[in-house]
Amino acid sequence: MKKQKSTDFNKPLTFKFGLKDGLPIGLGYLSVAFAFGVKAVVAGVPWFMALFISMTNLTSAGQLAGLTVITTLGTFLEIAVTQLVINSRYFLMSITLSQKMDDNFSFANRFFYSAFVTDEIFAVASSKKLPINKKYFLGLVILPYVGWSLGTLLGATAGSILPPIITNSLNIALYAMFIAIIVPPSTKQLGVALAVLMSAGISCALYFIPVFSVLKDGIKIVISALITACLMAFLFPIKKEGDSDAVR
Amino acid sequence: MPLGRMALMIVVMAGVTYLIRMLPLVLFRKKITSRYIQSLLYYIPYAVLSAMTFPYIFYATGNLWTALIGTAVALIASICKQSLIIVALLSCIGVLIGGFIF
User: Fold this and answer.
1) What is the interface pTM, i.e. ipTM, of the complex?
2) Are the Cβ atoms of B54 and A204 closer than 8 angstroms?
3) Would you call A3 helix, strand, or coil by DSSP?
4) 3-state SS, one letter per residue, for A150-170
5) Region of poorest pLDDT, from A11-20, A78-87, A127-136
6) Is the minimum CB–CB distance between A174 and chain B shorter than 8 Å?
7) A220 touches B: beta carbon within 8 Å
8) What is the spatial distance between Cα A106 and Cα B77, in angstroms, rounded to a whole number?
9) Are the Cβ atoms of A165 and B91 closer than 8 angstroms?
10) Domain range list for chain B
């Protein structure tokens, strides 16, 4: 059997292949959502409300922040602004994905599928060389959605069964996935390698320099990515689409 | 907080999050032809993912040392071109083993 490698970016994008790509995301979400469910119930949110949050929001950082606003009896404006700031990165991701989707995505399709733009789904979808089709995207989003909802339900109802040593180790899974996505192309393209290093550097600077602590993490990520991408697009422009060896 | 108000707040939260995701996908239907913008969109995923990972990965496990082990394992595994799930699994195992040491 041929070993499936993370570099198989040219494989035909079928529904089954989407499911396969979605599996590790779904497993990662299961554990992160489990932690969210536990946290919500401990903070005084009923289990069905915790599940309602996860099924309608599908975003880790945003939900954690939202939970804080709810449990500290915040206002509607507060919860709206918090989401806007923390989740503004999805705006960039959706712009990128809008260019990756093939022509079969109708207007209605775009309304529907946009609900599933998450960091990880975006990461996998945008790493494909071929345009994304509906079947593949549907396959890709199913298991993460199920994992996220089920994980929250389990965490909120079954609670703290797992010892912390297990949940702590599961928490690194999604970050490890990000590394698995950004490292292989970095070893092949100087522009990507520099973009990865620069963005990480700016992000760390914004995180550790005290004066920037007024900024929310979501904004820090958007600033780091925008500065990096603007500069790299200038220094290392990609070949025009349609060229035989265009990078995407 | 009364359940009704909590439900409404969740709806507001979901609405804002959805709009951020939906608007670009629905509005940008034409292919962008500018070489600069194409390049920009090419680098954005890597830049976003990198900024999201560093430095936050170091605090993901609640212990800097186990997180560093997990990060190192993930880096080595992905340089060796392992699949996403293998990299994630190995990294978790690294943190788990580190957890018994630190």
Assistant:
1) 0.86
2) yes
3) coil
4) HHHHHHHHHCCCCCHHHHHHH
5) A78-87
6) yes
7) yes
8) 39
9) no
10) 45-101
In terms of CA atoms, which chain B residue is nearest residue A26?
Answer: B85
Q: Check CB contact under 8 Å for B22 and A110.
A: yes
Contact list in A for residue B87 (CB cut-off 8 A) is 6, 176-177, 179-180
Instruction: State the average pLDDT over residues B57-79.
Output: 94
Q: What's at A146, amino acid-wise?
A: V
pLDDT at A240: 59
How far is Cα A205 from Cα A212, in angstroms, rounded to an integer?
A: 9
Residue range A221-235, pLDDT digits in tens: 888 988 999 999 999
- Contact between chains at B41 and A240 (C-beta distance less than 8 A): no
Question: Could you state, in order of their start, the residue ranges of all structural domains in chain A?
Answer: 15-169, 188-248
- The span from the CA of B5 to the CA of B66, in Å, is 41
Alpha-carbon span A174 to B92, nearest angstrom: 10
Q: CA B58, CA A171: separation in Å to the nearest integer?
A: 11
Phi, psi at A239, each rounded to 5° = -70, 150
Chain B residue numbers touching A248 (CB-CB < 8 A): 42
3-state secondary structure of A8: coil
- What does the block give as tokens for A160? 């703290």
For the stretch A20-61, pLDDT in tens is 999 988 988 887 788 788 878 878 899 999 999 999 999 987
Q: Which residue out of B3, B20, B23, B36 would a mutagenesis test of the A interface target, given it has the greatest number of A Cβ atoms within 10 Å?
A: B20
